[in-house]
Amino acid sequence: MATTTAHVADRSATGRELRSYHPPRVPRVWRDTIAALTWASGLIVTALWMSNGGLQDLQHLDTGFTSLGRLTGLIAADLLLIQVLLMARIPIVERVYGQDELARRHRLVGFTSFNLMLAHVVLITLGYAGLDGTNVVAQLWDFTVNYPGMLLAVAGTVLLVMVAVTSMRRARKRLRYESWHLLHLYAYLGVGLALPHQLWTGQEFLSSRPATLYWWSLWIAAAGAILWCRLGIPIYRTLRHNIRVAAVVRENEDVVSVWMTGRDLDRLRVGAGQFFVWRFLSGPGWMRAHPYSLSAAPTRDTLRITVKDLGDDSRELKGLRPGTRVVIEGPYGRLHGGVRTRRKVTLLASGIGITPLRALLEQLPQGPGDVTLIYRARDERDLVFRAELDALAAARGARVVYALGRRVPGRDTWLPQDAAHLSDRDALRHLVPDIAHHDVYLCGADQWMDAARSAALAAGVPADHIHLERFSW
Fold this sequence. Notes:
- With about 475 residues, the protein is of the alpha/beta class.
- The protein has helices at about 30-50, 60-85, 90-130, 135-145, 150-165, 170-175, 175-185, 185-200, 205, 210-240, 355-365, 385-395, 425-430, 445-460; strands at about 5-10, 15-20, 245-250, 255-260, 275-280, 290-295, 300-310, 325-330, 345-350, 370-375, 400-405, 440-445, 465-470.
- About 50% of the residues lie in helices and about 15% in strands.
- A five-stranded parallel beta sheet has the order 11-10-9-12-13, sandwiched between helices. A three-stranded antiparallel beta sheet has the order 3-4-7, with no helix packed on it. Strands 6-5-8 form a three-stranded antiparallel beta sheet.
- The chain is elongated and about 80 Å long.
């Protein structure tokens, strides 16, 4: 059952007056509906291909190549639009899946669409070359030079190739997030350059009025979603709430918190644990976006993020000046109280992953003993918010466990070296004996979260009661 949206005024252990908002749970039927619409779009474009003689054309080699080329092109175009819609930040889609799962689906759909696009080019070229009795190179040149919109399509294909190559895991590891994000925006230009070719020369686009209407509707819907959700909503919220940097506070040697103030922030409908994509208008580089979680429960007029210096643009945050304007996109993410299914909760954090879980500890409705926070760090110096966490635990009746120590060498585990004699599951059960009856929230490095999730599953926590956000790209 869906829970109702809750706004509750409260005061945290730090004396801040909170405005608690818990995003409501999403009915399963919404997820099923989105999935059904996605599959239906593929079935419709396949039906359009069949109604235009696609199956009959398979009887001969050359017409068969051309027919399969049309089909792969149709499905590639359909998946390309789905890929755009997955990352258009459409509120309902974001609420159903969350950015973590959307990013994985976006990557899968994107590579599938890219491969089908290449197959489309090869098959169409082979088919036309066979029908015209010419060689493949000459036919490809004829397509490019003489067919309407093809030069634009070639330019769009080059851009999509660049995006696909930089999206491979090995390439992503060599790029900063900010650089990758800017390069990835060229995908929109690539899609836009391909549009004239498909609408001017695509047989299935022009074969009937329903087909033309269907494809134009898809393209308009995708363009509208991008313009409204990626530009319109962020611009409106940025102007409406007028967020500015209030102060920058050093938490330890390489971690800083940025406090921000704004107007009517309670109307942002953001819950603790969620994140925004931030742009600080502080000079060169302001176009680069930074996804950071809130590290404190939001109030009517304050927000806080806490960032570790990872050698990229994150180090520039310590130089922000009070009064700097902030552009926001969001809120995003499913690491919030709205996904909670049980009274008892375990929060498992590692390193700077403490930030959204510290905010959750502050905001989650709870009685004494309902919430346990396990915070993994290398040593005392790496602990962030130690005083705040202790104060919140004392005020709210929560329990905080600090798991300190270096990594266990040669083993993928969430435990420190001092606990290497225990299995991951047994250690979790030792700290939280009734863990199987808890919701578990995880945040930390990917490998650490994988180990912690496996431990929670082994300890009897159902998979749909484990909530995490990866921030990988």
